[in-house]
Structures are given as C-alpha cells and as structure tokens.
Design a protein that fits this description.
The complex is a heterotrimer of chains A (485), B (477) and C (95).
Chain A (H helix, E strand, L loop, with lengths): L7 H9 L5 H14 L6 E4 L1 H17 L9 E5 L26 H9 L2 E6 L33 H8 L5 E6 L5 H7 L2 E4 L19 E6 L2 H11 L29 E5 L9 H16 L3 E5 L7 H16 L18 H12 L2 H14 L4 H25 L2 E5 L15 H6 L2 H9 L3 E9 L2 E8 L5 H14 L12
Parallel strand pairs in A: 2-3, 7-8, 7-9
Antiparallel strand pairs in A: 1-3, 4-6, 5-6, 5-10, 9-11, 10-11
Helix pairs in contact in A: 2-3, 5-6, 7-15, 9-11, 9-12, 12-14
Chain B lengths: L2 E12 L24 H4 L8 E2 H13 L7 E2 L2 E4 L9 E4 L9 E7 L2 E14 L3 E3 L6 E5 L6 E7 L6 H17 L12 E11 L9 E6 L2 H20 L7 E6 L4 E4 L1 H4 L7 E2 L6 E2 L2 H10 L4 H12 L3 H8 L2 H14 L3 H18 L11 H12 L5 H12 L5 H7 L8 H14 L1 H8 L5 H12 L6 H11 L3
Parallel strand pairs in B: 12-13
Antiparallel strand pairs in B: 1-10, 1-11, 3-16, 4-5, 4-15, 6-7, 7-10, 8-9, 11-12, 13-14
Helix pairs in contact in B: 2-6, 3-4, 7-8, 8-10, 9-10, 9-11, 11-12, 14-16, 14-17, 16-17
Chain C lengths: L4 H10 L9 H15 L23 E2 L9 H5 L5 E2 L2 E5 L4
Antiparallel strand pairs in C: 2-3
The chains are: A alpha/beta (485), B alpha+beta (477), C alpha+beta (95).
C-alpha cells in the first residue's frame, strides 16, 4: 500500500477505521527510513521503541476513544530531549548524551499517542542554514541530492518531503523551520514566541527559539500544533494563553483579507524568478478576495546585524554548560581544569558553533556590551515596532521565505556571511517573536519555493486558515520528489 | 602618617526557603552529595529556571526592614565564568535592576549610633561545593548547594574600623534571623561575607585602592582579617608602594591574607539579562502582604521594652536582639505575673548564662518559659527565696521536673510560720548574749548577724521579711 | 572592525574554547567579517529606544515554594564522564 503520501488527517482516518494498524504503519515508515538512509535525515532511528509504542497504540485504538493522532508515526528534531534516547543536537559534544528526561513537547506528542520513529538531523546546536554544520554530515534535499535541505531543521524537512514520516517537529531561531520547509517543499510553522514550551529543547538563543510543526499541509500543521502548544509551568517564558482549536477555522473565507506586502521583501536582493513565483501566489489570494496593501519595514535590513549579536551572545552563555564535567564530551587525560574545559569544548564543538560563541563572548565582554548587545536590543525593538505598525493595518504579511531556492552543498560554506544574509526574510520575525509559516508555492528549476505568511501574536489559527485556503486551490504541497513517490 | 581605614561589606545570606531559587529541589543542609541537585541545578541541556516566590518575598521583606527602595521592576542577569561548582557556566544573579535598592541600618559602637548605608541587595543562586580532599589528585564536586537562594547585601564603604564592620555584620545577622528569612548559620555557610578594605591618609576624601577579602564566615575572622589586611596595606603604603586591586583570601590558621590570582585572571563576567527569565514585578498586593507579615523590628521592640516594662536600655537591647529571646521574655512576663524587671533579670542573667555555658540557643533551652514562670511565681508568692530559686533552677536545668516538684522533693519551701521562726530566733538570742548586748547598746550592724544566723539555722528557708519583723520585735531597744 | 589573532585568542580563552593554532587566522577573518556586518547597526539612531530583551511584554511567573524534585543522582550520573562516591570529578582545583 502507498500510505506514505497520506496526510495526518488521512492516516488518522485509516487507523480509526481499522484500515491498517499502527504497527503496520510504523513498520512501513521504518522501512522507508531504512530504504532512504542515504538521505541522512535521521541521526537516530528508534525502531524497537517505535514498534512497542505502536503496539500500545493499536490496543488503544481497538478500545476506542483513542485521541486523533494515536498511532501515527512522526519524528523529533534531535534538539528535543528524549528520555533514554541519544539527544545529540547535531554535535559531537552531545554524541554520548542520553537525555534523562523528555522535553515537554516530546511528552505532549506521547500523550497525543503519536509514535516517534527517532531523531532528526540538524545543524549543530541549530546554528546553520544548510544542515552542513551537523556533526553527522548534512541531510540531503530529496528534490536534488546536490542541494542542501536548509537548516537548521534540515533533517525534519528532508524526511517529511521524502515522506519518510508524515510530520515532524522543528525549531526556529532565525528561520530554522521556515527556510528548510521552503527548500524541501513542505509546510512549516514557527509559532509565536512562548506558544510552545522550550523545556527540554536544547537552547540556542533563548529569547528567539521556538518549536513548531513541519508537515505536508497546513491542515496537518494545525493538528501538530494542537498537540504541541500550551502553557508549561516549567518554562518561565511560556505564554499563559488559551490554546484555540487550530482546525476550527481552516475553511473560513479569505474574502476581504488584508495582505501586507513589505516593499523591503521585494527589493534587489530577491531573485527575479522568486519574485515572480511569490507574485503568482499572491495573485491566488487576490482571486480568493484578498486585498493587497503595501507596507514598509524600514529596519528590516538591520535584522541580520542585530540577530548576529543577540543570538551569539545568548548562545555563548547557553553553551557554557557544555564543559565536560556532568555530561557530554570530555577530552582524554586533562592536565588541569582549564585544559579540561578548553580541550573538551574545542573538540566537542564544530567551526560554526565556535564562531558564534566567539562573537557572542566578544559582544558581551567589557567595553563592548553597550555598543553591541544593548544596541542590538534597541534595533530589535525598532523591528518589532515596524511589524506592529504594519499589522495594525493588515491581517497578515506575505513575502518570500528565502531570496533563492535551495543552494548547492558547499556553495556557501566558504563564506559564513553570505550564508547569514540568506536569512534576511526570516530572522526579523524571530526578533519580533511573531508567528510565521512557510507554504509550498511553486518551483524554480525543480526546486521548491516557499511563500511566507506572517501574522500577529498568537494568530496561528489565522495563519493556518490563510495557508489552508491556498492549499485548496494549489497542489504544490502535494508534489513528491522524484524517487520518493 | 595617620591612616583611615575604609570598609565595605558584601554579605551573602542564604534564604531559608524550602526549595532552590530556580528549581523545586530541596535546600536542606547535609544530604548525601548530589542527591538534592535536580536537572535544573545541574545545568543539564534544555532545562529552564522558574523563580521561587518565597525568595522574592523574603528579599522584599528585607528591603522593607532596612527602609530601602523596593522597585516594582527587577531583572535577573547571567554572570558568566567557568568553575566546576558553577554548573551552567554562569550564575543567575542581578546586575542593573536589583530587587532591593538603597537603604540603611544603624549600628552602635562605643555607645555611639552610626548609620551605615546599604547600596543594594539582590537575589542570586549559590554555587555548589568543591571538595579538595582525596580522590587521587582530583577535586570532587557536590552540587547540592547549587541554586540555593542567596541575598547579597552590599553596604556603602561607610565603616571605619573592624569594630564597626563586625557591629554591622552582627546587626544584619540579627536582622535576617529576626525576619525569619535566613537561619544565619555560619558554620553551615548560610551567612558569609566579603570585606572590601582600603586605606587613605586621614583627611583625604578620595578612597584608596581596595582589596577584597572573600568568603569569611565568622565574626571573629572578619575582625582578625581586617586587622591583618590593614597592617599589610599600611606596610606597603608606608614603604611607598601601592595597593593592587585584587581578591584575597584570609587564612585564619596563619592569620594572613593572600592573593587569589587564579580567580582574578581574565575576570570579565559579561553580565547580560537572562533570556530564560522575565522581569520580576513586585505588585502592590505583594508589598501589602509582606508589610503585614513584617515583624516588629529590634529597634522598635527595644523601645517598647523600655517604655512598657521599664527595663534598662541595656537589658532591653539584649532581649530585643533575638526574636526568640524576646518572645521568651514576653511570654514569661505574661505567664508568671512577676515583675518584668525580675523576668528580664532571670532571662538575661541566669538563663542566658546557663545557655552560653552549654552553647545552646534560646530555642534549645531545657527550661521553657512555662517552667521558668512557675519558678518565678514561687518567688513572688514567698514559697521560696530568690537564693533558693537559683538552686531550684539548677535542678530544673538537668531534669524535666517542675519547680514545684523540686521544691517539694527537696523540702525547700520557705518557712513562713512565724512560730517556727520565732523558736529559731529565741534560740539564737539565748546562744549569743554578747551580740545582743552590742546591738542593744547601739551597734545597728549587729542586726545583720542575727538575720544571717537565722537564715543559716533555717537552711535558707526562713522568709527573710518575717525574720526581720520578728527580730525587730524581740530585740527592741 | 578588525580583530587580531591575539584578540581572538583572548576571547577564546574567556570562552574556554580550544582553537587549533592553524585555524586562528581564519577565525580572526570570520570574526572580523561578522563584526563588520554587525557594525551596520550604527547606521540608525537609537538614542531614545528602549532595549527589548523579550518578544513578549510579560512578567516573570512565580513558583510556589514546594519540593517536588526527588533524588535522581544515579540517573543523572549515569551520563557523567567521571564520578566517585556521588561526586563529579574534575582535575584538582587550586584556590
């Protein structure tokens, strides 16, 4: 049976009606993961645990009243702690780290009855836009082996795009859900900061990190977000906001929807074919009755500079706990305490992580704090105010996710700055803490292109509605890469 | 040259919360190593801090007690450095917006009152402990203490002598216990202090370069460390040298301070607001609650003891210095219906003396206020004399018997029966004709001899007033 | 803004981060480039802008002071590089 192209919604129906069992489904996906292991999308496959969980799910399903997602396979980005299972965060530093607890998100999916098939590849400590910084080597983009799947949630995007799993978790600090979703032609949602618990999600930049779903469709993303979202007392930055029914308004009409197009999203930095593709998508919305308004984000270009102070500063401190004392990599035969720290960390971290730690350490050091960190936080406010102003007049903001489709493996590794600049359309959203989605909107040279939809705080249901309506009139999201049909 | 010593103190008081400042692990002292260090305390990947409300309340309480500004808004920051007892590689502390702002405290030295400024007090987490013994050349790390809430109380450089520094430290020590926000246990490290010392030529306004003495955990050592450090600095300055601004360690065994350069190198803490925590807001409701919960403070209590109980200032001060002691005293007054002055005397002299001898605190006293009240009652109602009472007190100290039971068992009841006393006196008068003669011839002093003899003959049990009365009748001139 | 290899070595030490000597040059170049990128921030006047530390304008939630954690030492120390008698071991620390 070809179940791997089915959506969560379809799989749920199949399971609830007994068309197939969770064990069959789980085995089928495990086989696909095995069969396409060269994609390198998984760091760890938890076959035994998955089969055991599927058995339990089948019992639950047989008993009736099983929650909607019961028995459906998925997988977690390897940034989420999973009890008793290696949680590497894509780093040699944590290659031997068996988490002694679950992230709240992991617990929530267990409660929802989903079956985790393992842990997905990612850029080391979520620092990267191509998956190339992973200690385990880059996952490949199923649309073209020679291009990157994006990052940092590259393994998640590649695995969902290749239909090795129907959906996955990801995290987004500067575009790490949206950009790989765009590069791999799937649907990704970065929720409002505070919507999804960060407990047990290994921190990169605490004030920017946010977990979210990566799936084939907006409808599936709604189901995933429903399972993930909610207040968590273990996370001080978790929002005490009720979680709405994200599926309830998917079919609302978009007539009269006001879409803001920031002119800065469509300037000379954007590849012309990309511009055309995005314009085509916007036209679909016009057809559905949406109204287009030009808006302005005058400080957008400062988002990358501000981000490359704030994120490295936070990460330099966040990663200080990786010191070879209580867990993780420890160098052999340290001479003294400093040698233990310096070598364990020197050996455990890769180049990109080191770059960011160094920049962050520098930016916070005596004499530079005001010029860098405080300045960046002020710019953060300006950017946030740009969005607030725009969202006073429009319902959602739209634009590209990336300036170009997926780039080639190795194409940007020589010049980190070039890599950073490619995140121009996603980073500002994290600084503001807003929710945003990436929705498949076409192809350029057989490479997927993502449309970005940005909404107001806690307007995830609105975003999902807007994305779902688009997916009712287009079929970009249903395309499967060659060899993975 | 005449030098003036300038001292400022940074006191670390562990707050007596049940749980850590950012985790729900117990803060109990003395557990097996690392059994009270949860994932948050260990700084494992992915875990997050959540602030303990009790720690906040306690800090606010302290702020109110020193009449400080307690701002609406306070922020936690990360202080970054690597050390094995600091699991996250940063300490969560406060920098720009401490919970308690400028306040003050009055100390008394040589009968003079002096006001000491408190610059700020902020919340932070304690570190774990490094155990340097054994482990074949390795250091062992116990993180049970990691995350215990600390209130760091920073004074202005307002102290000018070791004596003032100790008086201030004692006053803070007294206060935190009074407020019930710290057990103040110095052996267990619940209360410790860093001392900043500098010298300047007398009359000069500008401060000299200071040295910081780290982690001193007794009043005696603070005093000795200051003396030693002042001498060291004086020697350097008088030889024309200059003081290096540095952290030093006081070694009580050698009575010397020495440089801790190892901790000094590259000392750049890179403070920045902790993005895992949000700003803390002190609501008017919380303020009102804490205010209502604020106990009567030592100074106010002392004044009240002087006015309400007519105690001498010294005794009032003594009793008011510790809340349990003051409570004991007041309970005693209420229960015994004895004169307050007598109660105060017994608590300050007999009871405190006995407690000090055995190194006990008032709450560990083997004689609680109800038992002592009965004893004092028996003095008041003439069952025993004050002198006999001391004997009864000693017996009570080492048993659980009541005063009455001891008086009864040891037959210590005062003889008030005038017949019995008269019989004793008659015999004494008969036995000492020469003294009778002397008295009758005008030697008043001899009267005391008769009293003494009577008391002796009655083994101290005769009621002294009765003895006086009868003697006066019998020896009428 | 351009850093020297000496600057980079100092920062690396502050971060206790081992860097191979032969890589110092390239880190120095990368860092200088990153700081040049970051320097674009000075193009905008922010004198009257309040720094924004968090995307959400909310306040810290407070936790009741109740012990809910229990001893998990064995569990936690199973992943530790070196422990003895319940203690984490590190090379001798000299005060």
């Amino acid at each position: 049976m070809t179940i791997h192209t089915k959506t969560l919604k379809q799989l749920s129906q199949g399971l609830q009606t007994g068309e197939y069992s969770s064990q069959e489904l789980t085995q089928a996906y495990l086989n696909r993961i095995q069969q396409h292991s060269t994609l390198n999308s998984f760091i760890t496959v938890t076959e035994t645990q998955a089969i055991a969980a599927a058995k339990q799910a089948d019992a639950l399903l047989a008993a009736g009243n099983a929650p909607l997602l019961t028995g459906i396979p998925m997988a977690h980005k390897d940034i989420f702690c999973t009890q008793g299972i290696k949680t590497s965060c894509g780093s040699k530093m944590l290659d031997n780290f068996i988490a002694p607890y679950n992230a709240t998100v992991v617990d929530k999916f267990n409660t929802a009855g989903m079956i985790s098939l393992g842990k997905l590849n990612m850029d080391e400590f979520a620092m990267g836009s191509s998956n190339e910084t992973s200690f385990y080597g880059s996952a490949l983009n199923p649309w073209a082996d020679s291009t990157v799947p994006g990052g940092s949630s590259g393994g998640s995007a590649a695995a969902v795009a290749a239909r090795l799993i129907p959906a996955a978790t990801g995290t987004d600090t500067g575009g790490s859900i949206r950009q790989p979703a765009a590069f791999c032609g799937i649907t990704g949602l970065k929720p409002t900061y505070g919507r999804v618990s960060r407990y047990g999600m290994i921190a990169y930049a605490s004030s920017l990190d946010q977990g979210g779903p990566m799936a084939q469709t907006a409808e599936d993303a709604a189901l995933m977000l429903q399972a993930m979202a909610g207040f968590d007392a273990k996370d001080s930055t978790s929002a005490q906001q009720d979680v709405p029914d994200y599926s309830a308004n998917l079919n609302d009409s978009l007539k009269g929807l006001k879409i803001g197009l920031p002119k800065e999203f469509f300037d000379e930095g954007l590849n012309s074919e990309m511009a055309t593709t995005i314009e085509t998508a916007i036209n679909e919305y016009k057809k559905m009755g949406a109204e287009i308004v030009e808006v302005s984000m005058p400080h957008l270009k400062l988002a990358i500079p501000a981000y490359y102070v704030i994120a490295p500063a936070e990460c330099s401190a966040n990663l200080q706990r990786m010191d070879g004392v209580r867990f993780g990599h420890r160098c052999t035969d340290p001479e003294d305490l400093n040698d233990l720290y310096i070598r364990s960390r020197g050996e455990g971290f890769g180049t990109e992580v080191k770059r960011r730690i160094l920049v962050g350490t520098y930016a916070l050091s005596a004499g530079y704090y005001d010029a860098y960190y405080i300045k960046a936080q002020k710019i953060r406010r300006l950017i946030s105010e740009d969005f607030a102003k725009a969202l006073e007049t429009v319902d959602v903001i739209m634009g590209p996710v990336t300036p170009t489709p997926a780039f080639g493996i190795g194409e940007k590794t020589a010049d980190p700055i070039e890599m950073y600049l490619a995140d121009i359309y996603t980073i500002a959203i994290n600084l503001a803490g807003l929710p945003a989605m990436s929705v498949p909107a076409g192809f350029i040279d057989n490479k997927p292109v993502g449309l970005q939809i940005i909404g107001n705080y806690f307007a995830e249901a609105k975003l999902l509605n807007v994305a779902h309506q688009y997916q009712q009139v287009t079929n970009w999201h249903q395309q499967t890469p060659k060899g993975f049909e | 040259m005449q030098w003036e010593t300038v001292i400022g103190l940074e006191i670390h008081a562990q707050l007596s919360t049940k749980t850590k400042i950012f985790s729900a692990a117990s803060t109990a002292y003395g557990a097996e190593p690392n059994t009270q260090a949860c994932a948050v305390d260990l700084g494992l990947p992915g875990v997050l801090p959540v602030l303990n409300q009790e720690a906040v309340r306690m800090a606010v309480k302290f702020g109110m007690a020193i009449e400080a500004e307690v701002s609406d808004y306070s922020v936690f920051a990360r202080k970054n450095y690597f050390y094995p007892d600091l699991p996250k590689g940063y300490q969560i502390s406060q920098m720009d917006h401490p919970i308690v702002g400028v306040g003050h405290l009055d100390i008394e030295v040589n009968g003079q009152t002096k006001r000491i400024g408190v610059t700020r007090a902020h919340l932070e987490e304690d570190a774990g402990k490094s155990l340097h013994e054994s482990f074949h050349g390795s250091t062992g790390v116990d993180l049970n203490r990691a995350g215990t809430p600390l209130l760091e109380i920073v004074s202005e450089p307002d102290m000018r002598s070791a004596k003032e520094a100790v008086a201030y430290m004692r006053k803070i020590h007294e206060l935190v216990q009074y407020l019930d926000i710290s057990d103040g246990n110095m052996q267990e490290g619940s209360f410790r202090c860093d001392v900043n010392i500098s010298l300047r030529p007398k009359g000069q306004e500008e401060f000299g370069t200071r040295a910081e003495l780290k982690n001193i955990n007794s009043f005696k050592f603070v005093e000795k460390a200051i003396f030693t450090e002042v001498e060291r600095q004086k020697e350097i300055l008088e030889a024309g040298g200059s003081i290096v601004q540095e952290t030093r360690l006081y070694d009580p065994d050698k009575d010397e301070t020495r440089s801790m350069r190892s901790k000094e190198e590259a000392n750049d803490y890179r403070y920045f607001p902790d993005p895992d925590l949000l700003p803390v807001y002190i609501s008017p409701e919380l303020r009102a609650e804490v205010k209502a919960d604020l106990p009567e403070l030592p100074e106010a209590k002392k004044q009240r003891f002087v006015t309400d109980y007519q105690l001498e200032a010294e005794a009032a001060n003594n009793l008011a210095s510790s809340r349990p002691l003051a409570d004991y005293f007041e309970n005693l007054v209420k229960t015994s219906s004895c004169e307050a002055k007598i109660c105060s005397n017994w608590v300050c002299v007999e009871l405190s003396g006995a407690l000090n001898k055995e190194n006990l605190t008032i709450s560990q006293s083997p004689i609680d206020f109800t038992r002592l009240a009965q004893l004092l009652q028996r003095i008041a109602d003439n069952t025993i004399s004050g002198k006999i009472a001391k004997q009864v007190f000693e017996a009570m100290w080492s048993s659980t018997d009541s005063a009455d039971a001891i008086i009864e068992a040891q037959g210590l009841k005062q003889i008030t029966d005038s017949g019995a006393i008269e019989a004793i006196i008659d015999k004494i008068i008969t036995d000492n004709p020469a003294q009778v003669e002397q008295y009758l011839s005008g030697k008043d002093k001899v009267f005391g001899f008769f009293v003494g003899q009577t008391m002796k003959a009655s083994q101290g049990k005769a009621n002294p007033a009765e003895v006086n009365k009868i003697l006066q009748g019998k020896l009428k001139r | 803004m351009s850093l020297t290899t000496d600057d980079v070595n100092k920062i690396a030490y502050l971060a206790r981060l081992g860097i191979n000597t032969e890589d110092t040059e390239s880190y120095t170049a990368d860092l200088s480039n990153m700081l040049n990128l970051v320097a674009q921030m000075s193009s905008v006047d922010t004198d009257n802008v309040a720094p924004m530390a968090h995307p959400l304008d909310t306040i810290q939630r407070l936790r009741p002071d109740q012990v809910t954690e229990s001893n998990q030492r064995d569990n936690f120390q199973a992943i530790a590089p070196q422990v003895e008698e319940g203690l984490y071991l590190v090379p001798k620390v000299l005060d």
